[in-house]
Structure formats: structure tokens, C-alpha cells
Request: fold
Amino acid sequence: MSNALSRIGRRRALRGSAAAVVALGLLLWWIAPWSEGPPGGTVTLSTGTRAGVYQKYGELLRSSLGRHMPDLEVRLLTSDGSQENVRRVATGQADFAIAAADAVQTYRLSGRPGADRLRGVARLYDDYVQLVVPTGSDIRSVADLRGKRVAIGQPKSGVRLIADRVLQAAGIDPEKDIEPSSDGIDVGPQRLGHGLDAFFWSGGLPTDGLKKFTEDSSLRFVPIPADLVSKLHDQGGATRYYRATNMPESAYPGSQHGAAVPTMAVSNLLITRTDADPRLTEWLTRIVLKSRDNIGAHVHSAQLVDVRTAIYTDPLQLHEGARSYYRSVKP
Reply:
């Protein structure tokens, strides 16, 4: 009997040892990418205009990457916005960029160079469409923009893409029915009432380049109602990435006076190409998520970056490096 019990004990011990080896192997597999130390090199990140959220987010992300990946040099490229950012990544002029999902899908649907090489790294935060007029303006709806002097963003920006579509949904031809201006967030707000009747902007909340002009209640936000968003969806294509929402009353309290403003939003993505180094991309994805609170302290909208939502980079497939990171933290 004692020999039989001894054999049973040995088998149990062997099974326990095997399980421990497996567990140790899984642990080593999980930490292996990080035990080698962070990769280095040089990458370019295309952001946006200097007074916009993309640029500020890029600067803060570069600082975070510098702390965690000291051998990585991140070069920031200013740009007109989403449309230019997508093109730069697709054609190899930038390694990473921030771009709105509608601009990404528009580029893909047009079959432009490198569209099939685009990949997602993370869903970041939502841009809100902000249509701004002077407080005393008689403009109360998008339809009231007919015949007005309207800033619709830089030609290669995501703002221009959205403004054109919103105007068309309201029955306004952007080329014939308004006096269009390409003023961006850097100069547009200060020209309201001084050469401009209205200003389109699409960005995270709040946008610093706009916030300082709303503190004295001199500006007002024009609603973009849900029925107009439905008409946008009828245009097809990339318009499915727009969703009806409300700009919360806390976004610009000086101008909103405790009232939410109906508008629309679109997701922002961090994008790259298929040929981006997988290990570097895995580390970069990790730092984007790890730096949420630090970046969010300065870019309020970035507080919403979360591993549970970051993985959804539609319309793009995840880059293999980003996919490896999300698998490593899957609960």
C-alpha cells in the first residue's frame, strides 16, 4: 500500500511540476517583449495645426515616449489635419499619425496610393463638430449659413471634409452658396465678426485655440441636430462614421451657459502602415495607453482613451504590433 501511495504522490508531484513549468513559461512569454528593453530609432508623427488638439496630443505623447523609450526620437510634423495625415502615412512621408475615421475611410474608398497598407494602432478620442458664430449673429441653424462668409477649414483638413458634407446635407453648395474661407483654428476664431460670419471646427473638447475666445460669452455655438446627421448618413460612404451627440455644457461654460449643444462626433485613430516595426509599434501602443492620465490632465478628451475601446480601429485592421499588445493585456 505504501509503495502505491508513493507512486501516486510522485505522479502528483510531477503533474504539479509540469503545471509550474507551464505557468512560468507563460509568464516569461508575457514579459519577454519588455525584458529586452525599449526599442530605439527615429519615427515621424504627423499631427495638426499648432493651435489644435492633434498637435498638443502629439507633443504630450512625444514626452511620454521620451520617458519610457529614451532611445526613440519622435519627430512631429504639423499638418492641415486628418486628410493630409492619412496621405502622409499611406505614402511613407510619416510613420504614425492621428486622423479621424471618416478621413481614413474616404482615402481608402478613393483607392489612393498606399491605402491598402494603412493599419490601426489605437482608437483615441472623439472629435466634436463645433460651428461657431458671434453671440449677436442671426445665424441659428446650418441653413442660415447661405450667403454668409464661412470658414470651412484648410483644404487637406478633416474639418474641410466634414464642413462640406454638413453644408451639402443642409442643401447648401459649399462653392456657390457661401463665401468660403480656409481659415483654421489658428486664426479663424479671432476673425469672427471681423471678416467671418461663422467658423467650422472639428476637434476634441475643449480645444484651447477656441476656449480662450468663449470665456467672455462673445461666441455662440450653432446646433447640428440629429435629423441633419441622418441626412449625412444618406450620402453614404464614410459618413457612417458620424454619430449624433451633444456637446456637454461643461465644454465651454463661458459661452454655453449651462446648456448642451446638439452636434455630431467622429472617432480619432492613431494610424500607421503594415511595414512599421512590430516591436516598436507594440511598445508605442503600450505607452499610449499607459500615458492616458498624464496626457488627459492636459488634453481633457484624452481621458477617455481606454484599452477596452482603443482596440476598435474601424475602418482599419490592427497593426500586428498593436494586436500583440492588446492580446498581452486581455483579461
About this structure: DSSP finds 13 helices and ten strands in the chain.
